[in-house]
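Batch queue: ligand-bound targets. Current item pairs a single chain with flavin-adenine dinucleotide. No template structures supplied; prediction is de novo from sequence plus SMILES. Inputs echoed for audit trail.
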Amino acid sequence: MILTEFDYVRPVGLDEALTLLAGTRGARVLAGGQSLLPGLRTGENAFGADGVRLLVDIRGLDELGGIARGPGGLRIGSLTTLAELAADPLVLAGAPELAAAARANGDPQVRNLGTVGGNLAAPGRATDLPVAAIAADATVELAGPGGRSAVSAEEFAAGGAPARSVVTALLVPDAGRAGAFEKTADRATRYPVCAAAVRITADGPRIAVTGATPRALRLRGVEDRLRGGPYTTEAVLAAFRGEPRELFVPGRGTSAEYLGHLAGVLTARALAKAGAIA
Ligand SMILES: Cc1cc2nc3c(=O)[nH]c(=O)nc-3n(C[C@H](O)[C@H](O)[C@H](O)COP(=O)(O)OP(=O)(O)OC[C@H]3O[C@@H](n4cnc5c(N)ncnc54)[C@H](O)[C@@H]3O)c2cc1C
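Prediction returned. Tokens below.
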């Protein structure tokens, strides 16, 4: 049961959605509803002081759908569902870490309804796509009161979705030879206890971790310690031991030491999957 009272509107275009978001206190974007609606049911306080007064349902906005290949890489519309992302041939070929992160997300119902924009923007707890987007060096495209803008997936994960903005697309560059994603899921919810994503580039692997850390983070210290190789599981675990313990946030029944080790194990598995560890 949802105890909050709110209004609901289905705009016919992005401009109308932006006008509603700009002009109404407590207006929130509604996409697949797979984070927002459970949050409203539990009274989760992740929606700020204004709470939720108006749901702006963007699911009818065709301009936010579709996956296309452009000159520099992939453009993934924010309304792409997680199920579509997991199965799309362009994504499987050009951004396998994103496809794997989508496949690992929740259950079939969540993947059929949940969207790329929603999984990137969901506040409050670690989700799967941001870490894969950071490893892939992706950019989040936004539309807001000030017009169109773009921020790196890393900046977006640090700052969250800007108020009154709509994520319109995720842009994934072609750079890199291979990518992979590995996760240890919470058994009840499937959310990540820890997840690691890697993208192999000419400069070495780009490595990002979430769940074990306060938010999805690129681990440049680990990348630097591994630079030049040889890439082995032991070298990866040693590189993670070089990170400050405070980086890893103990959770329910998990210590910082455990999470730091788990992040190393998952990263080594992802590197093996991407072909960097024999
Ligand atoms: C049973 C269950 C299991 C789950 N397991 C996992 C899991 O294993 N891993 C995981 O990562 N997640 C998991 N989730 C969460 C879920 O996958 C995603 O967070 C969800 O799909 C978000 O997408 P959505 O379209 O449903 O967003 P919504 O719920 O509609 O919105 C989520 C948030 O993002 C904002 N938002 C949505 N779209 C946009 C946009 N285009 N622009 C700006 N803001 C936007 C909304 O205002 C809201 O704050 C699970 C959820 C459930 C119910």
